[in-house]
Design the sequence.
């Protein structure tokens, strides 16, 4: 009888397990914040759906900032399609030694990507929430970014478990939401923005990609006005984006000017929220 009384009930054991999980989560977030404390601004690039050029915007934004003399890193946590290394034509991969990840570097940008978990670039990563959470946590706790002015985070698209896990793991200064002139893309962007707002995180503004004669323009700016957000700028659809040997912002003057305007708008949005 005494042994039965001293044995904890299933409810007590479950409560203890939950408390321990909360403690581990708190410790992980503290470790991550310490790793990221030397980074000036942490900006998420996000979209309501895939195929709108989110990764292209993240890569060209990072490369433009580096070209202007800033110290920049890009973290690719798009679980389904981690394409940053491909989009940047990476020749130098990150290295892992003694439990420390040293980012690879290309065009002056430090790069860490979920693609490092792939055995080959065409392998599908099929993970659920806990695995995503653990992988991201491990990445963030192990990576030595050093001193950075900007860390650009390429998130998974949509409103499912993947982006939610990233948002709850990394404390970001704000999000740049990418959409296109198509009304369905704008609708998905609106859903994503509403999810961000539920988490009480800043939305810095909206970028409208693929602007031009084929798809038209204006849906992104209209959405920004509707949601009382900054319209950060439009990016014209150009043939140069078909080439992945070097980010177009580094070789096309017109594209560089587009990103110059977008960065100015991002910095203004950050300043207005501080």
Sequence:
């Amino acid at each position: 009888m005494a042994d039965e009384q001293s044995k904890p009930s299933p409810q007590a054991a479950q409560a203890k397990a939950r408390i321990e999980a909360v403690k581990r989560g708190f410790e992980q977030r503290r470790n991550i914040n310490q790793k990221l404390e030397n980074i000036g601004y942490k900006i998420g690039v996000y979209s309501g759906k895939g195929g709108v050029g989110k990764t292209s915007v993240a890569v060209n934004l990072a490369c433009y900032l580096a070209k202007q003399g800033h110290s920049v890193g890009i973290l690719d946590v798009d679980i389904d399609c981690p394409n940053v290394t491909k989009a940047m034509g990476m020749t130098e991969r990150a290295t892992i030694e003694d439990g420390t990840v040293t980012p690879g570097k290309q065009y002056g940008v430090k790069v860490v990507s979920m693609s490092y978990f792939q055995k080959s670039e065409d392998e599908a990563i099929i993970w659920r929430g806990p695995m995503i959470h653990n992988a991201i946590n491990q990445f963030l706790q192990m990576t030595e970014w050093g001193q950075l002015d900007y860390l650009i985070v390429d998130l998974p698209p949509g409103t499912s478990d993947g982006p939610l896990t990233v948002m709850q793991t990394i404390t970001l200064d704000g999000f740049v939401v990418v959409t296109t002139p198509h009304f369905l893309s704008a609708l998905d962007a609106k859903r994503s923005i509403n999810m961000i707002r539920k988490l009480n995180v800043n939305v810095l503004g909206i970028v409208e990609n693929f602007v031009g004669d084929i798809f038209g323009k204006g849906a992104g700016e209209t959405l920004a006005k509707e949601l009382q957000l900054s319209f950060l700028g439009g990016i014209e659809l150009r043939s140069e984006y078909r080439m992945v040997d070097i980010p177009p912002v580094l070789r096309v003057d017109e594209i560089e000017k587009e990103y110059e305007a977008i960065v100015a708008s991002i910095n203004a949005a950050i300043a207005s929220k501080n």
